[in-house]
Design a protein that fits this description.
Helix 1 (2-35) packs across helix 5 (92-99). The termini are far apart. The protein has six helices and four strands; from the N terminus they run H-H-H-H-H-H-E-E-E-E. The model has no long low-confidence stretch (mean pLDDT 82). By secondary structure, the chain is of the alpha+beta class.
Length: 153
């Protein structure tokens, strides 16, 4: 009887964690961003991986197959300026600005939803009040906690 109770409680706790932990993580990140708690953000966000992913996205967006001289110059300029922008914006303060929808689209708030992509990953999908898609944040499990590893704008 006690074993059955322990098993049932364990299953309920795992289920509660599975469904509640993404929302809790998103709330902690938004709360830390709004209060300027850089230490909390650094704990919940893998900034180096986030920057690297954005640099790779930038490089991929410029890879159009052209190899002429002017195209290479343009690619170099975009890569240099883009990398500097990424390094400047992908900080606790920069993410706080991104999470505040009013700085991107004045007068609008973001609503968030969780899209499960597996047991160890989920995507936080945002939408502005007018229905326009907002940024998406990819999280990966790190132990029992979640860590932000990518942002799609």
């Amino acid at each position: 009887m006690k074993l059955r109770l322990i098993v049932v409680l364990s299953v309920l706790m795992i289920g509660a964690w599975y469904f509640a932990s993404p929302w809790y993580t998103m709330w902690r990140i938004v709360d830390a961003a709004e209060s300027g708690n850089s230490a909390e953000l650094e704990q919940r966000i893998d900034f180096e991986r986030l920057r690297q992913g954005m640099r790779e996205d930038l490089s991929a967006s410029r890879d159009d197959g052209d190899t002429d001289f002017l195209d290479r110059i343009g690619d170099g300029v975009v890569r240099t300026v883009g990398t500097a922008a990424i390094n400047t914006m992908v900080t606790p303060r920069g993410l706080a600005v991104m999470l505040d929808a009013s700085t991107v689209m004045p007068g609008q708030d973001l609503s968030w939803d969780v899209d499960r992509t597996g047991f160890s990953t989920f995507t936080a999908v945002s939408t502005y009040e007018d229905g326009t898609p907002g940024p998406q944040m990819l999280f990966e499990r790190s132990g029992l906690a979640w860590q932000l590893v990518a942002v799609r704008v």
